[in-house]
Amino acid sequence: MTFIDLEFLIFLLCGIIVFYICPVKYRWIALLGISTVFYAIAGLEYLPFIFVTSLSVWLAGKKMGAYYDKQNLELENKELTRDDKKALKEKYKSKCKKVIAGVLVLNIAILCVVKFTKFFENPINDLIAFMGGKEDSFSAASIIVPLGISYYTFSSLSYLLDVYWKRVGYEKNYFRFLLYLIYFPHILQGPIERYGKLGVRLKQELRFDYDRVVSGIQLMLWGYFKKLVIADRITQFIDAAYGDYWNANSLILILSMFLDVIYIYADFSGCMDMARGMSQIFGIELDLNFDHPFSSRSVTEFWRRWHMTLGGWFKDYVYYPISTSRLVKNISKSTRGKVSPKIAKALVTVIPVSVTWVLTGVWHGTGLTYIAWGVYYATMIFLSVTFEDDMKKLTQKLKINTTTNSWRLFQMARTTVIFAGGRLLTRPGTLHKSAAIVYYTLKNFRPWELFSSEISQYGLTTPELVIAVIAIAIFGYVSHLQMKGSVREMLKQENLVTRWVLYLALIFAVLIYGVYGPGFDLAAFVYMAY
Amino acid sequence: MTKKQVIKTIAFLLIFAVLFTTVSSVMRAKWAEANSEDLVVDEFNNLIQEDTLEMLFLGSSQMTYGINPYQVYEDYGISSYSISSGNMCPLIQYYWLLDAFKTQSKVKTVVMDTSMLFEPEGETRYRRALNSMNWSINKLKAIWAHCNDGIAEDGMELYLFDFLRYHSRWDELTEMDFKYWTSEFNFFRGTRMTGYVWQPTIPYETFVIDNDPEDDPEVELNTLQFDYFERILTLCEERGINVILVKTPKESWAKEGSIFVEKYAKENNYPFLDFSDDEGFRTLGLDYYGDFKDKDHLNVRGATKFTTYLMDYIMETGVEYTDYREVEGFSLEKSELYKIDRVEKMLRSCISIDEFLTYLDDEEFEIVIQSTDDISKLWPAEYQKAFADAGIKLDISKMSGKNYVIVMSKGKCVYEKASAEPIYYSGMFKGNDAFETVSNINETEDDAYMKVKNVDRPFEINGMNILVRSVYTGKIIAKCTIYNDGGKLAYADMGMG
């Protein structure tokens, strides 16, 4: 059941009614019930997985919390010396390390097995055959992939590490913790919430607020517009062009690459708007996942604005731990004075950047394309960081005024092109196809065909293309307005008739022009496979 | 929530509901003609008094075009209705029948056409008739049965909210989607008359099934539809209603179907009137070249013959029916409109000069006659008599080398002129629709024409060109030409365009 299914909308409506019928005190329980039902509808076979993760992590958090409570109690002893206190802390940290290690390994192992087994299906079958077993007896398709496993595993790991690092206190109530993990608006595609934020929000009094509910519905509607009218429409063009890459005009292929950028943004941010909007209806704020990423002037900035919660997760739980690890510290120490500062900086950057980005790539998908994607961004960011000063000197030398709008636009365009390049590694499906698309983009340069009827041969009729262009223009305009502030708040200042006309126009735009229903493949959310 | 917020919410939802309903009806696929199936249901529910029907005709479009309940009333006094719809399969027929029985408990006979028993599944088998059912338990049951027992690939939600199915038609919308047909001239107790005469492209021998019997032929029976066919029979039996099975002639019907139904009917004691073979044709007196509107449906002429034969048969079955012609206060709704429509359709379906000339003095029509070829030498006396009876003084047989224009209005000749020179005439039809004509038997392409409201009404053949317009609807009913066909006069239908 995805957010764009009618069954989901009916489920949501019933859930909202049940939620608000419940007394305020028990609304969190209603939310837990609704979320559990949602998860069960997705597949009863998934429930054991989430219970194993939630129980193991909660128990570990409880155990560590108990250790820290004991530690704090013992630290109150005024007779302890500084060394005593240090030893005490080391003792309890060591105990916590043993607790966390096992649970981390367990849950990461579950994640790796369900996600990556299909990558190793052939080698596993080869091994079975080598050992005398039946050929092709193992099928990765038989492995259950629980709904949202990447998201809830990361959420649970972040809780575990935050408790370990004493960034948050442990949750005493298992069901509250389960709610944090299984809370249905964010389990499909994120955002990846930290316990310190979502856990706290879920404990607040969840009272009905008319304006907030209406605002949530508006946000959901905007999400549906982006997903159904834009993303699911233009993806057909991209599929058709990439499916015929050897014949397609270069300009069609280039257009597809940029439409793919719009597609992924509209699809993913659309889903985020739906998730945040419906969460808002229940009175829970979810973190933003996008902050105008295409206004970024560098790749590094881009990834601070795109899929922010994932980027933040990897930064806090992979990048910083590695960059402050003993290994990296030793490298820094050993190269001090022996190499130039630039090379020294590069050496301490390359490991955490590479590991972070390869893991980010692998999180997105199994296969060489995602590893290549990770390496691509690792390279881009590494080069960006390493040559940052050189670039500054170059612009000064060339007397380029970097405060102008044109320079800013150039940087934004450059960043977008880099992002499009990254998408080109994964969207076609194989690296070979990605390379072939690049090859034919260079080879099939026939600009005169762009203005012929050729463009309407790629999955979309002329009326569909017109709708796509108009919808993208609206998306762009609203995004531009959003840089000045909340568009929903701006709309509130308008007259009632204006507001209602706009709302109804948006509703009917989604209902009429949305890509859904028979005749269209239900375009799965891009990030739902994670 | 404050009171203001409640009011705002309700108001917004109401506006949305109205807009949604309107947009849904625009988006809904219209299949053949706008909201035609809706009219069948609407008229049944709104125009027919409770417990006044004693006969129902059940089936798909074969019944829509093949039977005439008004004729059934006029000639036999029986009050009947054709609950039929294009492509309607037995599953939906069953639920339509159930709906009909809610208000009609005095039905004595159901005549059921068996055309849909062997038709493959398809969306139109269900959608056309299902969409137009009023929301009721029966409609929900029909949707459920189709989606769960049938082979429907779409879910119930696509029927409960058919907007989900049809929203993607936004780039296929035509004028028809924005029209809402009113009931006036379109349906008469569930059936439509059409004057169109099909020009067969299939030899007659291929069209009719051969009546070489074969025991237990293999037929690909649609088991789901057959199940509902039997449910209809059971339902009627439980209510003490007689059932007569019929098979109207159509091209896409195989003899195996007839043999199967005949065997079934015999085993279960149902009369089965099969008109799909040559014997059936001859029994009805059907004219293959004049009684069909297309390869699967009878036109008004064929329907008249079919209705007559069927009713004669039914009257012999011994069942007593109320003669509603003698029931005080009872009259068929829209009877005046029916008469107008029938004459128009009969004129439209003319296939011979003799037939056509009988309508010359009909008060329903305005007629413009021009000459674009000399047929005077072939013009017989009997045709001239018909002209004279209609009040036309010009003797066509003496119009050798002459042009002429004749205008008839509501049965009276209001203008006639003959001249060796081309004749231009312009006038006004009722309703201030201007028309003009130029008559010229020596015409080159631009010399002769017929225009109505400044729109050219071309005739592909030269001769005596006749344009007929309805006084009541203002529509062009027919264009025809009487022409020289190798030394004898022939009649050609020029369409209505």
What attributes does this structure have?
heterodimer; A: 530 residues; mainly alpha; 0% strand; globular; disordered C terminus; B: 497 residues; alpha+beta; Rossmann fold; 2 domains; six-stranded antiparallel sheet; five-stranded parallel sheet; 17 helices; 17 strands; 19% strand
Explain how this protein is built.
The complex is a heterodimer of chains A (530) and B (497). Chain A has 530 residues and is mostly helical. Chain A folds into three domains: 6-208, no CATH class; 211-286 and 452-529, no CATH class; 299-427, no CATH class. Chain A is built from 22 helices and no strands. The longest helix of chain A is centred in the N-terminal third of the chain and has 35 residues, at 82-116. The two termini of chain A are 15 Å apart. Chain B is of the alpha+beta class. Chain B has two domains: 3-339, SGNH hydrolase (Rossmann fold, 3-Layer(aba) Sandwich); 351-493, no CATH class. In chain B, the strands form four sheets. Chain B has a six-stranded antiparallel beta sheet with strand order 10-9-8-15-16-17, covered by helices on one side. A five-stranded parallel beta sheet of chain B has the order 2-1-3-4-5, with helices on both faces. In chain B, strands 11-12-13-14 form a four-stranded antiparallel beta sheet, with no helix packed on it. In chain B, 41% of the residues are buried. The mean pLDDT of chain B is 88. The interface between A and B is medium-sized, with 21 and 22 residues.
